[in-house]
Amino acid sequence: MSYGEFDRPVDRRGTFSLKYDFAKERSRPAGLLPLWVADMDFPAPSCVQRAVARTAEHGIFGYTEANEDYFRPVKRWFFTRFGYRSESEWIVRTPGIVFAIAMAIRAFTEKGDGVLIQPPVYYPFFEVIRDNEREVVENTLVLRGGRYVIDLADFEEKIRKRGVKLFILCSPHNPVGRVWNPEELRAMGELCKKYGVLVVSDEIHCDFVYPGHRHYVFPEAVPEMASETILCTSPGKTFNMAGLQVSNIFIRDEALRRRFRHEIDKTGYSQLNQPGIWACRAAYEEGAGWQKACMEYLKENLDYIRARLHSDVPEAVLIEPEGTYFAWIDFRKMFADAGELDRFIVEEAKLWLDAGHIFGRAGEGFQRIAYACQRSTLEAAMDRLAGARARKCGGVCPEGRTV
Questions:
Q1: For 16, which DSSP code?
Q2: Which residues of 345-366 are buried (b: 16+ CB within 10 A; e: fewer)?
Q3: What is the distance between the alpha carbons of residues 308 and 379, in angstroms, rounded to a whole number?
Protein backbone atom coordinates (compact mmCIF):
# COMPACT_ATOMS: atom_id res chain seq x y z
CA MET A 1 0.00 0.00 0.00
CA SER A 2 1.21 3.54 -0.78
CA TYR A 3 0.51 6.54 1.39
CA GLY A 4 1.17 9.67 -0.66
CA GLU A 5 1.79 12.16 2.13
CA PHE A 6 4.26 9.79 3.79
CA ASP A 7 5.93 8.57 0.59
CA ARG A 8 6.60 12.06 -0.76
CA PRO A 9 10.27 13.03 -0.20
CA VAL A 10 10.91 16.28 1.65
CA ASP A 11 14.32 17.93 1.46
CA ARG A 12 15.21 18.93 5.02
CA ARG A 13 18.71 20.17 4.25
CA GLY A 14 19.31 23.85 4.84
CA THR A 15 16.56 24.07 7.48
CA PHE A 16 18.83 23.97 10.56
CA SER A 17 17.84 20.31 10.84
CA LEU A 18 19.82 18.53 13.53
CA LYS A 19 19.43 15.30 11.57
CA TYR A 20 20.61 16.57 8.18
CA ASP A 21 22.60 19.80 8.64
CA PHE A 22 25.05 19.14 11.48
CA ALA A 23 27.20 16.19 10.44
CA LYS A 24 30.38 18.29 10.48
CA GLU A 25 29.60 19.78 13.89
CA ARG A 26 29.03 16.27 15.21
CA SER A 27 32.32 15.01 13.73
CA ARG A 28 30.66 12.88 11.08
CA PRO A 29 31.95 12.55 7.51
CA ALA A 30 29.97 13.98 4.64
CA GLY A 31 27.71 11.71 2.62
CA LEU A 32 26.22 9.63 5.44
CA LEU A 33 22.53 8.76 5.24
CA PRO A 34 21.08 9.78 8.62
CA LEU A 35 18.57 7.61 10.47
CA TRP A 36 19.53 8.55 14.00
CA VAL A 37 17.50 11.46 15.36
CA ALA A 38 14.13 10.50 16.84
CA ASP A 39 12.08 12.77 14.62
CA MET A 40 10.17 11.90 11.46
CA ASP A 41 10.83 12.87 7.86
CA PHE A 42 7.07 13.28 7.37
CA PRO A 43 5.44 16.72 7.36
CA ALA A 44 3.26 17.30 10.40
CA PRO A 45 -0.46 16.76 9.81
CA SER A 46 -2.24 19.48 7.89
CA CYS A 47 -4.22 20.52 10.99
CA VAL A 48 -0.95 21.35 12.74
CA GLN A 49 0.38 23.18 9.70
CA ARG A 50 -2.81 25.25 9.48
CA ALA A 51 -2.67 26.12 13.18
CA VAL A 52 0.92 27.37 12.88
CA ALA A 53 0.09 29.24 9.66
CA ARG A 54 -2.83 31.02 11.32
CA THR A 55 -0.53 32.07 14.13
CA ALA A 56 2.00 33.43 11.63
CA GLU A 57 -0.69 35.24 9.61
CA HIS A 58 -1.98 36.93 12.75
CA GLY A 59 1.49 38.38 13.07
CA ILE A 60 1.65 39.05 16.80
CA PHE A 61 3.83 36.70 18.80
CA GLY A 62 3.14 37.95 22.30
CA TYR A 63 2.93 36.16 25.61
CA THR A 64 0.31 33.42 25.62
CA GLU A 65 -1.14 31.09 28.21
CA ALA A 66 -3.16 27.87 28.11
CA ASN A 67 -6.78 27.63 29.25
CA GLU A 68 -9.52 25.01 29.14
CA ASP A 69 -9.67 25.21 25.33
CA TYR A 70 -6.12 23.83 25.42
CA PHE A 71 -6.52 21.39 28.30
CA ARG A 72 -9.75 19.79 27.05
CA PRO A 73 -8.32 18.07 23.93
CA VAL A 74 -5.21 17.00 25.84
CA LYS A 75 -7.29 15.30 28.50
CA ARG A 76 -9.69 13.82 25.94
CA TRP A 77 -6.83 12.26 23.95
CA PHE A 78 -5.46 10.39 26.96
CA PHE A 79 -8.89 9.31 28.15
CA THR A 80 -10.24 8.05 24.82
CA ARG A 81 -7.03 6.21 23.88
CA PHE A 82 -5.77 4.98 27.25
CA GLY A 83 -8.64 5.37 29.72
CA TYR A 84 -6.68 7.90 31.74
CA ARG A 85 -8.93 10.35 33.60
CA SER A 86 -7.30 13.62 34.60
CA GLU A 87 -8.01 17.17 35.68
CA SER A 88 -6.81 20.36 34.05
CA GLU A 89 -5.00 21.53 37.17
CA TRP A 90 -2.79 18.43 37.05
CA ILE A 91 -1.17 19.54 33.79
CA VAL A 92 2.10 21.44 33.96
CA ARG A 93 3.40 22.67 30.59
CA THR A 94 7.11 22.39 29.85
CA PRO A 95 9.23 22.83 26.70
CA GLY A 96 10.21 19.17 26.67
CA ILE A 97 10.25 15.91 28.58
CA VAL A 98 14.00 15.84 29.26
CA PHE A 99 13.60 19.32 30.77
CA ALA A 100 10.74 17.98 32.91
CA ILE A 101 12.83 15.00 34.05
CA ALA A 102 15.63 17.36 35.05
CA MET A 103 13.16 19.45 37.06
CA ALA A 104 11.84 16.33 38.80
CA ILE A 105 15.36 15.20 39.67
CA ARG A 106 16.16 18.61 41.13
CA ALA A 107 12.84 18.91 42.96
CA PHE A 108 12.63 15.47 44.53
CA THR A 109 16.21 14.28 45.07
CA GLU A 110 19.39 15.62 46.60
CA LYS A 111 22.95 15.54 45.29
CA GLY A 112 24.31 12.01 45.61
CA ASP A 113 20.90 10.33 45.65
CA GLY A 114 20.36 7.33 43.41
CA VAL A 115 18.16 7.61 40.33
CA LEU A 116 17.16 4.29 38.76
CA ILE A 117 17.02 3.68 35.01
CA GLN A 118 16.73 0.56 32.83
CA PRO A 119 19.46 0.36 30.18
CA PRO A 120 19.91 0.04 27.34
CA VAL A 121 17.84 3.22 27.54
CA TYR A 122 17.45 6.70 26.05
CA TYR A 123 20.88 8.22 26.63
CA PRO A 124 19.78 11.70 27.91
CA PHE A 125 18.60 9.89 31.05
CA PHE A 126 22.24 9.21 31.93
CA GLU A 127 23.23 12.78 31.11
CA VAL A 128 20.53 14.57 33.07
CA ILE A 129 21.18 12.45 36.17
CA ARG A 130 24.94 12.98 36.10
CA ASP A 131 24.72 16.65 35.18
CA ASN A 132 22.63 17.20 38.30
CA GLU A 133 25.18 15.35 40.45
CA ARG A 134 22.98 12.38 41.23
CA GLU A 135 24.05 8.74 40.99
CA VAL A 136 23.01 6.65 38.01
CA VAL A 137 21.68 3.30 39.25
CA GLU A 138 21.15 0.70 36.53
CA ASN A 139 18.54 -2.05 36.50
CA THR A 140 19.73 -3.57 33.23
CA LEU A 141 17.04 -5.18 31.09
CA VAL A 142 17.58 -8.86 30.25
CA LEU A 143 17.40 -10.07 26.64
CA ARG A 144 15.69 -13.43 26.86
CA GLY A 145 14.43 -15.33 23.81
CA GLY A 146 14.67 -12.25 21.62
CA ARG A 147 12.66 -10.09 24.01
CA TYR A 148 13.73 -7.79 26.82
CA VAL A 149 12.35 -8.42 30.30
CA ILE A 150 12.79 -6.79 33.69
CA ASP A 151 15.01 -8.33 36.36
CA LEU A 152 12.70 -7.59 39.29
CA ALA A 153 15.02 -9.09 41.90
CA ASP A 154 17.77 -6.74 40.75
CA PHE A 155 15.23 -3.88 40.57
CA GLU A 156 14.42 -4.31 44.26
CA GLU A 157 18.02 -4.87 45.29
CA LYS A 158 19.19 -1.71 43.54
CA ILE A 159 16.47 0.36 45.19
CA ARG A 160 17.19 -1.07 48.62
CA LYS A 161 20.98 -0.93 48.53
CA ARG A 162 21.72 2.16 46.44
CA GLY A 163 19.62 4.85 48.05
CA VAL A 164 17.25 5.20 45.11
CA LYS A 165 14.76 8.05 45.51
CA LEU A 166 13.46 8.31 41.96
CA PHE A 167 12.83 5.89 39.08
CA ILE A 168 12.68 7.02 35.44
CA LEU A 169 10.42 4.63 33.54
CA CYS A 170 10.67 4.62 29.74
CA SER A 171 7.27 3.44 28.46
CA PRO A 172 7.19 2.36 25.66
CA HIS A 173 10.86 1.68 25.98
CA ASN A 174 13.40 3.46 23.79
CA PRO A 175 15.37 1.85 22.17
CA VAL A 176 14.33 -1.79 22.77
CA GLY A 177 10.69 -1.28 21.78
CA ARG A 178 8.99 -2.98 24.71
CA VAL A 179 5.42 -2.00 25.52
CA TRP A 180 5.14 -2.91 29.18
CA ASN A 181 2.14 -5.01 30.18
CA PRO A 182 0.04 -4.33 33.31
CA GLU A 183 1.71 -7.08 35.30
CA GLU A 184 5.16 -5.64 34.67
CA LEU A 185 4.01 -2.12 35.51
CA ARG A 186 2.31 -3.26 38.72
CA ALA A 187 5.36 -5.27 39.80
CA MET A 188 7.60 -2.21 39.43
CA GLY A 189 4.99 0.04 41.01
CA GLU A 190 4.60 -2.17 44.07
CA LEU A 191 8.34 -2.09 44.70
CA CYS A 192 8.45 1.67 44.28
CA LYS A 193 5.55 2.00 46.71
CA LYS A 194 7.24 -0.31 49.21
CA TYR A 195 10.45 1.73 49.28
CA GLY A 196 9.01 5.20 48.80
CA VAL A 197 10.43 5.76 45.30
CA LEU A 198 8.88 8.46 43.13
CA VAL A 199 8.18 7.42 39.52
CA VAL A 200 8.82 9.69 36.55
CA SER A 201 7.16 7.96 33.61
CA ASP A 202 8.35 9.09 30.18
CA GLU A 203 5.49 8.09 27.86
CA ILE A 204 6.36 10.22 24.84
CA HIS A 205 6.06 7.21 22.48
CA CYS A 206 2.70 6.06 23.87
CA ASP A 207 0.93 6.50 20.53
CA PHE A 208 3.36 4.22 18.65
CA VAL A 209 2.11 0.72 19.51
CA TYR A 210 1.78 -2.16 17.05
CA PRO A 211 -1.14 -4.61 16.69
CA GLY A 212 -1.30 -7.17 19.46
CA HIS A 213 -0.04 -4.73 22.08
CA ARG A 214 -1.58 -1.97 24.16
CA HIS A 215 -0.05 0.94 26.01
CA TYR A 216 -1.03 1.37 29.66
CA VAL A 217 -0.54 4.76 31.28
CA PHE A 218 1.48 4.06 34.42
CA PRO A 219 -0.73 5.81 37.03
CA GLU A 220 -3.79 4.14 35.47
CA ALA A 221 -2.18 0.68 35.54
CA VAL A 222 -0.85 1.21 39.08
CA PRO A 223 -3.49 3.38 40.79
CA GLU A 224 -1.85 3.09 44.18
CA MET A 225 1.07 5.05 42.70
CA ALA A 226 -1.09 7.68 40.99
CA SER A 227 -0.20 10.36 43.53
CA GLU A 228 3.48 9.44 43.44
CA THR A 229 3.93 9.62 39.67
CA ILE A 230 5.11 12.38 37.34
CA LEU A 231 3.53 11.41 33.99
CA CYS A 232 5.44 12.95 31.07
CA THR A 233 3.66 13.30 27.72
CA SER A 234 4.06 15.31 24.55
CA PRO A 235 2.53 15.56 21.07
CA GLY A 236 6.06 16.14 19.75
CA LYS A 237 6.80 12.59 18.61
CA THR A 238 3.25 11.59 17.68
CA PHE A 239 2.75 14.48 15.26
CA ASN A 240 6.39 15.29 14.38
CA MET A 241 6.36 18.68 16.06
CA ALA A 242 9.19 18.29 18.58
CA GLY A 243 10.70 21.59 17.44
CA LEU A 244 7.62 23.43 18.70
CA GLN A 245 8.67 22.45 22.23
CA VAL A 246 5.48 21.61 24.06
CA SER A 247 5.01 18.89 26.65
CA ASN A 248 2.23 18.16 29.11
CA ILE A 249 3.27 16.80 32.50
CA PHE A 250 0.47 15.28 34.61
CA ILE A 251 1.01 15.54 38.37
CA ARG A 252 -2.00 14.54 40.44
CA ASP A 253 -0.67 15.34 43.90
CA GLU A 254 -0.88 19.05 44.69
CA ALA A 255 2.18 19.11 46.96
CA LEU A 256 4.33 17.37 44.33
CA ARG A 257 2.98 19.68 41.67
CA ARG A 258 3.85 22.74 43.76
CA ARG A 259 7.43 21.54 44.30
CA PHE A 260 7.80 20.72 40.62
CA ARG A 261 6.52 24.14 39.55
CA HIS A 262 8.84 25.81 42.02
CA GLU A 263 11.83 24.11 40.43
CA ILE A 264 10.68 25.33 37.03
CA ASP A 265 10.22 28.84 38.42
CA LYS A 266 13.86 28.84 39.51
CA THR A 267 14.93 28.45 35.88
CA GLY A 268 13.00 31.57 34.85
CA TYR A 269 10.82 29.61 32.42
CA SER A 270 7.11 30.48 32.27
CA GLN A 271 4.76 30.20 29.24
CA LEU A 272 4.91 27.84 26.28
CA ASN A 273 5.64 29.30 22.87
CA GLN A 274 2.55 30.52 21.04
CA PRO A 275 2.70 28.27 17.93
CA GLY A 276 3.23 25.25 20.19
CA ILE A 277 0.01 25.88 22.10
CA TRP A 278 -2.07 26.13 18.94
CA ALA A 279 -0.33 23.17 17.30
CA CYS A 280 -0.86 20.94 20.34
CA ARG A 281 -4.54 21.80 20.50
CA ALA A 282 -5.04 21.17 16.78
CA ALA A 283 -3.11 17.88 16.86
CA TYR A 284 -5.15 16.39 19.67
CA GLU A 285 -8.44 17.68 18.24
CA GLU A 286 -7.97 16.78 14.58
CA GLY A 287 -4.89 14.58 14.17
CA ALA A 288 -6.18 11.09 15.00
CA GLY A 289 -6.67 10.07 11.38
CA TRP A 290 -3.19 11.19 10.41
CA GLN A 291 -1.69 9.34 13.35
CA LYS A 292 -3.49 6.12 12.37
CA ALA A 293 -2.22 6.35 8.79
CA CYS A 294 1.28 7.10 10.06
CA MET A 295 1.26 3.95 12.18
CA GLU A 296 0.21 1.87 9.17
CA TYR A 297 3.10 3.30 7.17
CA LEU A 298 5.56 2.68 10.00
CA LYS A 299 4.36 -0.91 10.28
CA GLU A 300 5.14 -1.44 6.60
CA ASN A 301 8.57 0.15 7.06
CA LEU A 302 9.24 -2.27 9.90
CA ASP A 303 8.12 -5.20 7.75
CA TYR A 304 10.52 -4.02 5.05
CA ILE A 305 13.47 -3.83 7.46
CA ARG A 306 12.72 -7.31 8.77
CA ALA A 307 12.58 -8.78 5.25
CA ARG A 308 15.77 -7.06 4.09
CA LEU A 309 17.73 -8.17 7.14
CA HIS A 310 16.55 -11.74 6.65
CA SER A 311 17.54 -11.85 2.99
CA ASP A 312 20.63 -9.61 2.89
CA VAL A 313 22.10 -9.34 6.40
CA PRO A 314 21.04 -12.61 8.03
CA GLU A 315 23.58 -12.37 10.85
CA ALA A 316 21.87 -9.18 12.14
CA VAL A 317 19.04 -9.89 14.57
CA LEU A 318 16.06 -7.54 14.76
CA ILE A 319 14.68 -7.24 18.28
CA GLU A 320 11.00 -7.10 17.43
CA PRO A 321 9.57 -3.76 18.56
CA GLU A 322 6.16 -3.78 20.20
CA GLY A 323 6.08 0.01 19.97
CA THR A 324 8.10 3.11 18.91
CA TYR A 325 9.61 3.66 15.45
CA PHE A 326 13.04 2.26 16.27
CA ALA A 327 14.64 -0.91 14.98
CA TRP A 328 17.04 -2.19 17.66
CA ILE A 329 19.39 -4.50 15.79
CA ASP A 330 21.86 -6.97 17.30
CA PHE A 331 25.08 -7.19 15.24
CA ARG A 332 27.08 -9.26 17.72
CA LYS A 333 27.18 -12.27 15.38
CA MET A 334 29.06 -10.10 12.90
CA PHE A 335 31.25 -8.07 15.27
CA ALA A 336 32.81 -9.01 18.56
CA ASP A 337 34.01 -5.44 19.06
CA ALA A 338 31.56 -2.52 19.29
CA GLY A 339 34.12 -0.09 17.94
CA GLU A 340 34.59 -2.19 14.82
CA LEU A 341 30.83 -2.27 14.35
CA ASP A 342 30.64 1.52 14.60
CA ARG A 343 33.41 1.86 12.01
CA PHE A 344 31.63 -0.56 9.67
CA ILE A 345 28.34 1.36 9.90
CA VAL A 346 29.97 4.74 9.22
CA GLU A 347 32.86 3.94 6.90
CA GLU A 348 31.53 0.93 4.99
CA ALA A 349 27.75 1.30 5.04
CA LYS A 350 27.87 5.11 4.98
CA LEU A 351 25.06 5.33 7.50
CA TRP A 352 24.54 7.58 10.49
CA LEU A 353 22.75 5.50 13.10
CA ASP A 354 22.72 5.62 16.88
CA ALA A 355 25.43 3.27 18.18
CA GLY A 356 24.09 0.94 20.83
CA HIS A 357 26.74 1.72 23.44
CA ILE A 358 25.45 5.27 23.91
CA PHE A 359 22.37 3.69 25.52
CA GLY A 360 24.60 2.07 28.14
CA ARG A 361 26.99 -0.87 28.32
CA ALA A 362 24.12 -3.27 27.65
CA GLY A 363 23.75 -1.74 24.20
CA GLU A 364 27.23 -2.64 22.96
CA GLY A 365 27.05 -4.52 19.68
CA PHE A 366 23.67 -3.03 18.73
CA GLN A 367 22.56 -0.18 16.47
CA ARG A 368 19.34 1.83 16.51
CA ILE A 369 17.62 2.77 13.26
CA ALA A 370 14.89 5.42 13.36
CA TYR A 371 12.66 4.30 10.48
CA ALA A 372 10.09 7.13 10.47
CA CYS A 373 11.14 8.11 6.96
CA GLN A 374 10.08 7.71 3.36
CA ARG A 375 10.34 4.17 2.00
CA SER A 376 12.80 5.37 -0.61
CA THR A 377 15.14 6.56 2.18
CA LEU A 378 14.81 3.25 3.98
CA GLU A 379 15.46 1.30 0.78
CA ALA A 380 18.64 3.32 0.18
CA ALA A 381 19.78 2.69 3.76
CA MET A 382 19.19 -1.05 3.56
CA ASP A 383 20.94 -1.19 0.18
CA ARG A 384 23.97 0.46 1.75
CA LEU A 385 23.93 -1.94 4.71
CA ALA A 386 23.50 -5.00 2.48
CA GLY A 387 26.30 -3.86 0.17
CA ALA A 388 28.68 -3.28 3.05
CA ARG A 389 27.84 -6.68 4.50
CA ALA A 390 28.45 -8.37 1.13
CA ARG A 391 31.86 -6.73 0.80
CA LYS A 392 32.79 -7.71 4.34
CA CYS A 393 31.70 -11.35 3.99
CA GLY A 394 32.67 -11.85 0.38
CA GLY A 395 29.04 -12.41 -0.51
CA VAL A 396 28.70 -15.52 1.65
CA CYS A 397 27.12 -15.57 5.07
CA PRO A 398 27.93 -18.18 7.73
CA GLU A 399 24.84 -20.19 6.73
CA GLY A 400 26.29 -20.56 3.24
CA ARG A 401 23.83 -18.33 1.44
CA THR A 402 25.06 -15.81 -1.12
CA VAL A 403 23.96 -12.21 -1.42
A1: T
A2: bbeebbbbbbbbbebbebbbbb
A3: 9
What's the full length of the chain, in residues? 403
Would strands 229-233 and 198-202 be described as parallel, antiparallel, or unpaired? parallel
Cis preceding linkage at 9, omega within 30: no
Domain membership of residue 402 (yes or no) is: no
The Cα 302–Cα 25 span in angstroms is: 30
- Helix intervals (H) in 200-325: 218-221, 254-267, 274-286, 288-312
How far is it, in rounded angstroms, from Cα 198 to Cα 104? 9
- 356 forms bridges with which residues in the sheet? none
401 within domain boundaries = no
Residue that finishes a domain, picked among 250, 270, 286: 286
Helix/strand/coil for 117: strand
For the chain, how many structural domains are there in total? Answer: 2
Per-residue pLDDT of the chain (403 residues; tens, 9 = 90+): 346 789 999 999 999 999 999 999 999 999 999 999 999 999 999 999 999 999 999 999 999 999 999 999 999 999 999 999 999 999 999 999 999 999 999 999 999 999 999 999 999 999 999 999 999 999 999 999 999 999 999 999 999 999 999 999 999 999 999 999 999 999 999 999 999 999 999 999 999 999 999 999 999 999 999 999 999 999 999 999 999 999 999 999 999 999 999 999 999 998 889 999 999 999 999 999 999 999 999 999 999 999 999 999 999 999 999 999 999 999 999 999 999 999 999 999 999 999 999 999 999 999 999 999 999 999 999 999 999 999 988 755 544 433 3
Residues 204 and 236 sit within 8 Å (Cβ to Cβ): yes
Residue 248's domain spans which residues?
A: 47-286
pTM value is: 0.95
